[in-house]
Amino acid sequence: MEKAAGNAVNNEIYNDLGERWYTAKDDPVALLRAESRSRNVWVLAEIRKAFGESAVSILDVGCGAGFLSNELARHGYKVTGLDASQSSLMIARQYDTTGNVTYESGNAYALPYEDASVEVVCAMDFLEHVDEPGRIVAEVARVLKPGGQFFFHTFNRNLIAWLIVIKGVEWFVKNTPPDMHILRLFVKPSELREMCEKNHLRVDCLQGFAPKIFQRPFWRMIFTGTVDDSFEFHFTKSTLTGYTGLATKR
Predict the structure, then answer these.
(1) 151 φ, ψ to 5°?
(2) Which residues constitute the domain of residue 235?
(3) pLDDT value at position 69?
(4) What number of other Cβ atoms are within 10 A of residue 73's Cβ?
(5) What are the tens digits of pLDDT across the range 185-243?
(6) How far apart are CA 24 and CA 34, in angstroms?
């Protein structure tokens, strides 16, 4: 396993992806696309369940190139995508077919929004990229309206997650950069629950999220190092590796 404290996660890799955010199959960004395709349907269903057809305002923190933001906008929601990478935001705007998403550069530790100003906040594949995820959760809770929803996805911190999420991707997906993920930054479900509870967020759903390993695209990735557009993830009972959740502000 990697040495305990010295490593820093390599967030700079996202600045250089350009069009590859949406086109590359020989890169782990293709796994991010597949995750979003499989997860966005659930996010949309949960928002509709809570808010019906209301004009909900949504903040997507660490939005990257807009995989979730652009999908939410296509369903008529008022979406703001926040990220520190200007080049990623440029690609997100380019692929926003609605032209309605507000993309902004900003600091997730100090969200540039008023208290209780949005109904939904999303932080997908983001908390494992920061040193102080508790501060992010606190900011999420601050900007959420009472009854608002917080969607999150991240990775559990244990030996199996290290072996699959970090080493497995390095071994089996082409062009995986060094330090794309760092084990010490992974967040145990119990820790995230505690962060949420501390900030008056009630965790209503927490479920595992993993690749469908009994389908051809998974084994094609193993043998070729590429991830095609039919690659799928699904929800599971086990949170041993990746997990997705939903919390509501009291």
Answers:
(1) -100, 135
(2) 11-249
(3) 98
(4) 22
(5) 999 999 999 999 999 999 999 999 999 999 999 999 999 999 999 999 999 999 999 99
(6) 12
- φ/ψ of 86, rounded to 5, equals -65, -40
- Average pLDDT over all residues of the chain: 96
**Residue 2 domain-assigned (yes or no):** no
Burial of 210 (0-12, 13-18, 19+ CB in 10 A): middle
What residues contact residue 12 under an 8 Å CB cut-off, 6+ apart? none
Residue 4 lies in a domain: no
Which among 133, 151, 232, 238 is positioned nearest to 192, based on CA atoms? 133
First to last CA, the chain: 39
Instruction: Say what the pTM is.
Output: 0.95
> Which sign does the torsion angle of CA 78, 204, 209, 240 carry?
positive
Distance CA 48, CA 51 (A): 5
| Alpha carbon distances (Å) from 35 to 18, 111, 184, 200 | 19, 25, 22, 28
Cross-strand pairs, 124: 153
User: Residue 177 in 3-state DSSP?
Assistant: coil
| Count of domains for the chain | 1
What is the three-class DSSP state of 203? strand
Residue 3 lies in a domain: no
Per-residue pLDDT of 144-186, as tens digits, reads 999 999 999 999 999 999 999 999 999 999 999 999 999 999 9
- pLDDT at residue 14 tops 90: yes
| Distance of alpha carbon 124 from alpha carbon 166, whole angstroms | 17
Residue carrying the six token digits 């599971």: 236
CATH of the domain at 84: 3.40.50.150
